[in-house]
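Re: that chain you flagged

S.,

Sorry for the slow reply, it's been a week of failed gels. I finally had a moment to sit down with the sequence you sent. For the record, here it is as I used it:
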Amino acid sequence: MNYWEFKKLLKQKDIPLVYLFIGEEKFLMEDALETLRNRFKDASYQVFFGEDITWREIIPFLEAPPLFENQLLVIRHCQNLKEPKDKDKIVSLLKNPINTCIVFMANGEEESKKRNYLEKIIPKNGIVEFSKLKSDGVRRWLNEKLKELNISLDSEAQYFLTMFWGDNLALLYRELEKVISFVGGKKEIGIEDLKRVSSPKEVAFFTFLDALYKRDVFLALSGLDTLWNEGMPPMVILEIIIKQFRQILRVYALLREGFSEEEIREKLDLHPFVIKKIIQSLTNFTAAELFRLYFLLRQLDQDIKSTTKNPRILLEGFLINLNRPLT
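Prediction finished late last night. Pasting the structure tokens below so you have them in one place:
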């Protein structure tokens, strides 16, 4: 099962008591463990590491559990737990543990080579795989956290968070906690709140993207100035611009083919806010202007890679062309 199925499972009355947590998304794994601990909040809690414990030491917890309370055992780095000699006995004990919930947590960087035997002896209904979330999954996770925290985050602020930290849930959650702390008891958080707690580079990056959509030359040049002074390489800045115009062209083409806004979002796996922004931006461009700017970007890419011209001057030259009408 995956993270979402595990969260749903824990809402049921009867749940499995033996789990194997595997996968590369460690933050979700820790989040799932915390949810499980809340389910067993009155249980005794003990943590061991696979390199420091053997099955011989684990067996007594399963054979002689406490009579009048539950226990929650966690074996971290379980890929380092040596394979038991008597697998049949272990399998039998894990089938129906008494007053005991036990969680085996694998270390993502090493588990692939060593986890096989655990998958064979742990009941299938307790194996949970924590894969990296895709864009939709990150938004779903963020919305669930906001609901738990009783906080409202507007779509632009959500996009800001997921754009910068969507590939690292731990950092995303840290930034969310930071802005919640900054606004105090405020329940509705907007983009301006996030900008106040973000670095100049992050704010400039977001502003720069917005300027491209709006064809706002002054704002784009201002954003470029900040990104440059913050040390962002010219090729990275160029890749940002190319990516934005490629997205605009793809959305334009799909709209011409009759796809709906929701269908385009699913097809391109983009944040709903981005799709709305792009569709709005299309009122600022004709098709001919979009293709001209994209052609200029290809030329700019060649010039930066193959000439000795100052890349900043080349980037500024393109941005000045942003609102130049087609002649």
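What I noticed first: The radius of gyration is 26 Å.

Talk soon,
D.
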